[in-house]
Amino acid sequence: MPRAVDELDRLVVAALQREPRGTWRAIARRIGVSEATVACRARRLLDAGIVRVIGSPVSTRLDLGFHVLVSFSCRAGDTLEVARTLARRADVRFVAVVTGTFDVVAEFLVPSKRQLAYVLLEEIQRIRGSSRRARTRSCARTRCRRRGARPSSATAGCRSRTASSGPISEEEDAAAPREPLGAVDLGLLQLVSQDGRRSNADLAAEVGISESAVSRRLRGLVHGGYVVFAALVDPAAL
User: What DSSP state is assigned to residue 111?
Assistant: First the structure.
C-alpha cells in the first residue's frame, strides 16, 4: 500500500505548482528542507502519478486554433455519460461535471468558428443525453491542457486570442508577428508536453544540442508564450 501523503509532500506539491521545472535545490530552499529530501519526496509523488508536470504548448500561439468553453444541459441521469463521451473526443481538452445552471462544461480546441458551428449544431446533437441548451465562451488564456488534444479536422489557422496576455481583437492578433518555430524548438515542445520535468541533459540528447542551448531555448519558448509549464495534481490523493 502506498504511503499516505503528509504535510511535507503537500509543501513539495505546492512548490512544484509554483515552479514546475524548478531545481530540487531551489525547491528545498523554498520549503526549508534538504535537497535530498525534496528529490526523494518529489520523485515518489511523480512516480505514483499524484503529480504530473507537463509543458503545455499554447495552441493559439502555434496557430493550431482557438479555445471555446461550451456549457451543456443534460437530461436527468445522463450527465456522466455525456461527460465521458465528450472526454473521448480528440478536440476536447477539458471536461468537468458542475452544479448550477448547466451540468457539464467542456473546453474545445477548434480551428475555426465554422468548425465550431458544425460541432455544436451537428456532432453534439448526436450525443445521447445532451439537450439542445448550450452556451459558448471564448478562452482568453489557457493554464493547462489534456495531453494529446488537437483541433477538429477542418481548415486550420484561425487566430482569435492570445495566450500570453489578455484578450485582444482578431485584427490585432492577425497583425501580430509570428516567427515560425524550427524543428529543434518543435521537438522540445513535443518532449516537454509528455514530461515537463525531463532534464536538460535528456532533452539535449534527444534534439542534438547542448544543455545550455536547451535551457536558453526553453526560456525563449516560455517568454514567447509558446509553452506554459504546469504541475497537475490528483486532488483525491491529497
Answer: S
Side-chain half-sphere exposure of 147, counting CA atoms within 13 A: 16
- Cα dihedral angle (232, 116, 123, 64), rounded to 10 degrees? -50
pLDDT at position 179 is: 64
Closest CA to 92 of 49, 61, 62, 127: 127
What DSSP designation does 45 have? H
The pTM for the full model equals 0.63
CB–CB of 181/220 below 8 Å? no
Cβ pair 68, 139 in contact under 8 A: yes
Phi, psi at 135, each rounded to 5°: -135, 140
The C-alpha atoms of residue 113 and residue 65 are separated, in whole angstroms, by: 10
Third-level CATH fold of 66-158:
Alpha-Beta Plaits (3.30.70)
Asked: is 7-55 a CATH 3.40.50.300 domain? The reply is: no
The residue extents of the domains of the chain are 7-55, 66-158
Q: How confident is the model at residue 172 (pLDDT cuts 50, 70, 90)?
A: very low
Read off the DSSP letter of residue 91: T
